[in-house]
């Protein structure tokens, strides 16, 4: 979990998981471009809207545009070097 400026892991062994760390760093970038607090507001709002829409926690979570971008690019360890600002907007409206 990324709560700027910290990454919170279930256990220390996950520190070496480059894909997981990249996923959370993508969230850091999203948080920074939205000035942190608005990110959390939008994240929660999108989750609640999705929960009403899909009536399923997993579908609600995986269809948040912030998560869709992070999961789509978490294997691309160079993604943040060329990521455009507000790239998560490209993931709105696309069901995962």
Automatic annotation (TrEMBL):
This is Peptidase M56 domain-containing protein. The keyword Membrane applies. The chain crosses the membrane at residues 34-52. Keywords: Membrane, Transmembrane, Transmembrane helix. The lineage of its organism: Bacteria, Pseudomonadati, Bacteroidota, Sphingobacteriia, Sphingobacteriales.
